[in-house]
Amino acid sequence: MMANGITAQNEERSLQTGEETRAPEKFLRPAVNIIEDESELLLTADLPGALKDNIEIHVDQGILTINAPVSVQTTGRPLYREFEWAPYYRQFQIPEVIDQGQMKAEFRNGLLTLHLPKREAAKPRRVEISVAS
């Protein structure tokens, strides 16, 4: 059986630190897709291992923050690991056209979906042309 030498290479691969002045804790940056249509921005974030009740979503001064602690207990001694369990943390600056009061979130099968609707004034609209008499 091989020694744990391969594991040592992978331990720091996907972990990132938060701001050094705020938190020495390590975080994982979840993969995110953002899609825009006429009425909203749709943000999906991959959060495997997170629990719905532990996910925190905040908007403060135009910054959207997603924070999801993860705690997975395993038995036995790890022989090889390619990923670490750590809290998920991601921030985005959202545009002023987003109606923060109408934001909605869904979480199913490890996938967080945020609906960020645009304000009515920001939605495209067609202007009808009338015939002058």
TrEMBL record:
Q: Where is the SHSP domain?
A: 23-132
Its lineage reads: Bacteria, Pseudomonadati, Thermodesulfobacteriota, Desulfuromonadia, Geobacterales
- Segment Disordered: which positions? 1-22
Return the similarity comment: Belongs to the small heat shock protein (HSP20) family.
Q: Superkingdom of the source?
A: Bacteria
Q: What CDD domains does the record point to? A: ACD_sHsps-like
Q: What is this protein called?
A: Hsp20/alpha crystallin family protein
Provide an example Pfam family for this protein: HSP20
The record's annotation in InterPro entries points to: A-crystallin/Hsp20_dom, HSP20-like_chaperone, Small_HSP
Skewed-composition ranges (Basic and acidic residues): 10-22
